[in-house]
Every structure is written in C-alpha cells, then in structure tokens.
User: What shape does this take?
Amino acid sequence: MMKRFLNFFAMQFVLASRSKIALFWSFVYPVVMLLLMLSVFGNLQKSGVSGADPRLVTVTGVLVLTIMSGGIFALVTVLASDLQSGVYKRLKLTDLRPLDVIFALMLRQFIIIVIGAILVLLAAKLLFRVTPNGDIASLIFLTTIGSTLFCSIGFIIVNLCSRPPAATAIANMIFLVMLFLSGSTFPKAVFPSWLANAAQILPASHLFDLLEGQLYYGEGLLDNTKSLAILLTMCLVLLIVAIKTFKWK
Amino acid sequence: MAGRTRANAMKIISVTGLEKKYGNVQALKGISFEVGRGEIFAMLGPNGSGKTTTLEILLGLRRHEAGKIEYFDANGQIGRMPRVGAVFQGRVYYESLTVRELTKYYRDLYRAPPHNISRYLDMVNLKEKLDTQYSDLSGGQQQQIAIVLALVNDPEVLFFDEPSSALDPQVRLKIWGLIRNLKSEGKTIIFTTHYIEEAEALADRVSILSKGELVITDSPTNIVRRHSENYTVEFSFEEDAGGDVFNGFSNVWFRDGIYSFSVDAIDGDLMQALKEISDKHKLSRISIGKSSLQSVFVKITEEKGA
Assistant: This one.
C-alpha cells in the first residue's frame, strides 16, 4: 500500500519538476510578487508594535499567496487537465486508491509550497534585509495546515466542475477573493466593518492572522486560539469533502 | 449443475440486460452478451452506438442503471473481476514521462508482482525509444506503447477502445499482429471498433451495436451467412439518375454515392434489369460480389436508422 503511494508520489514529483509552468507559478511568481509588493508597500508604517519591521506584514501576505497559489491554482490547473484527458481513468484501473492520489498530490504540493516559502523568506532577508520573528516549527505547522486546506479546496473545485475551463475560472475567483480580503494585499483595518466581518469566513483570513501573529508580532500559536481552531476545523471539513467528492473521471 | 459449471468455464464475462442513461438519452437499451475465455470479441458499431459506454461499464469506470455483469473464474464459478488491462482512445498517459519511466511507474501501481514486459517492447520494436518522452513519440508509437503499458499487470482480459483508430495502414497491421499474439498467449481480448475490416480480421465473434441496442452477436462468417442474401450489387452513376431508377427493386441502400442491394442469385432477370438501367443511365461503377460483413453491417445499422 505504502509502496504504491510512494511510487505515485515519486511520479508526481518528476512530473512537477518537468513542468515549466508549474515551476514558474510555484517559485518565480511568489518571489516576483514579493519584490513588487515590498516595493509598493514596503515604506508603509504599521503603528503599535515597537521594533517590528512593518515590511513583515507584506512578507506574510506573500507567504499566504504562495500557499494559496500552490494549493488551489497549481493543483486545479494540472488535475483538471489530467482528468479531462483520461489520465485518471487509466489510473483507476491500477490498485491505487483515491486516498493515495489525494495525499500524494497534497504531499507534492506541500513540498513545493515549502520550497516556495523558503525562497520568499530568503529573498526578503537577502534582498531587503527583512528578518521574520516566530519559530520554525510553528511556521511549518501553519504551512502544513494551509497547504492541506487549500489543496482540499483545489480538489473540491475539480471534483465539482465538469470541465477544466470552469474549474480554472472558479479557482481564479476564489483565489482573488481570498487574496484581496484576507489581509494579504490590503490591511483589513481599512475595510468597512461589514467587509472585515465577511472576510473572517475566509480560511485565508485566519491563516494570514496566524502567520502575521508569528512573523510580525512574534506571538506563539496559542496566542490566537480562535483563528487556530477555525482554521483546523475548516481544514478537516474541507479535507473530508475533498475525499468524499473525489472522482476518477 | 456440473454441465452448467463446464459451460461457465468456457466464458469469462456474462452481461445481461445492461442499461445506461445519460440524462434523457438511453445510451444502452438492455444489451446482453457473453465473452468466452481466450477469445477476441469485437463490439462493432457506428459512433454513438454505445460501444465505449459498454466497455467503460465492464471496466468499472461507469455506473449502469440496470443489468448484471458477471465474471467467471477458470473453474466456471462466479468470481471477482479478473486482472484487466485497457487501451483507451486519446492520450491517457503523462506525456512528459519517458517510456522507461512510464513502464516502471505503472508496473509499481499494481499489487501484482512485476510482469516482464520487455518482450512486448521487443515485439513492437520500440526498445530504442525507452528514454524518449511519450509526447515525442508518433501516434502509432504511442498506441503501441499504450498496449505495452496495458500489459504491466499481466492481465487476463484486455480491453481496447478503437485500437487502430486514425493510424496508418502499416501501424494498424502491426497492432493487429500484436493483438493476435496476445490471444495466442491465452488472453481474452475485447475491443470496440467502427472499422468493419478490423472486426472481420481480428474477432472470433462480433457484436453489432446500433443506437444502444445489440443487434446481433456471432462469428463474422455466421453473421454474413445468416443475415445477408448471397450477393451484393453496387452501382454508382456519373450523374444523378433520379429516384425512380431502382423501381422494382427492394431494399436499395444509398451510402457515399453508391447504391447497393442484395439478391439471392445472379439470374437472367437480374442481368436484364441491370442492362435496362445501364441503357438509360451512364454508370461510373458496377460490381457484383459475395456479401460481406460490411454489407450486413450497413444493412443492419441503416435498418436501425443509425
């Protein structure tokens, strides 16, 4: 069982390494976004936290973007196209189980996301001398939860859309809404209260809040238990829906 | 009871009353057939007749609304679905992987112990393509590799969906040779096709499907013998001869500019009728031949309005 899972995972990893588009969106796009966003927002000051570098809020936003892009975009684009061409119809005849497919793809995306996140943090440190707070274990934990959650969203989109263009369009819409309303690009403080409240139903909002707590405020994971509980619950529910709705064709 | 078990041992799949709907469209209208162990079984029909749907239901890739599918083991007992391999239409493999990677990865996706497929690569003369990416192979090479990849789990039953569709004649003959070799190894082969010559050349038995109904199942020879008159007469005219040219003839079909009908015998009356037609209209072609699976297929599918 494990052998088939690892074999499928290895195959997926080789495929990802040969996809120039996937490599661009996973590694180049986040770093370019970091350069652009730090250039635009880097001089804005955030009051209330003495000593912390305000540019860390921008870095946090780019990290959320990296996790979302790797979880939703990369997965939907590749999976929808493979499903339509019949690759999974052929795979169904093997002894792979849906769980092998789901977790192998999630593991692949997690590794890609972690590499993308490391590149973002390195670029921030080397090019802009921005050093984040927080501990590595908490960062990896949040990246794992975020990656699993957004991959689940990606699976659900593909499972529920019959055609790749529809899946890509819906992925785009969800991605952009979360990008703009989660605080990753614009501070939620400038939102009208109804919009700020509405934004709290988005998982990206809670991931941003938790990462911002880590990187900017130097908080521990348990300093924002409400967001952590909501994020974990959403992750679990969406993962179950992704597994239940999985289809080979 | 023992007799029934012996009879069952001869077959590997039994399909009874299979029905499938897509929305309001009844794609399969209760089809029934059996496939014998070690035989080559063809499903022949025009596009949209339900061939691929049937094949995908047999493979467990589609659900069906009604009907029963039973698989039999070598002892004639109803058992689990046997090990299967399949060759589908289209590009169902990851195209950026090399042939070597595809064979390795797909072989390891099965519980079954690794099956040596190098002899099949020898058979199709594609061993030198082992390190070529699937996307860089020609259409014919891709199809041959797809067949080899269908064999990685040493299947008992092989399903082919239009095995030589859109391939040039040389590659088609090569694929037919490979399929015959697989039969000689004892594998059961089920394939769909809309090429009559493919069904005639390969199949031990053929099912003709039309509009979701299975019209007939038998060997190509028996189908021709049982369902055709003895001779087929074909005509075409240099210019439009008008609709009344075949007054007095029954069951005249028109397809691709050619009129055809069947007769029991070539006699004086027929020759006189042909002479009268050729006196009135300039013929570009006339042929009289023994009826073939093609003429039966055309007749059956046109009777069904396909």
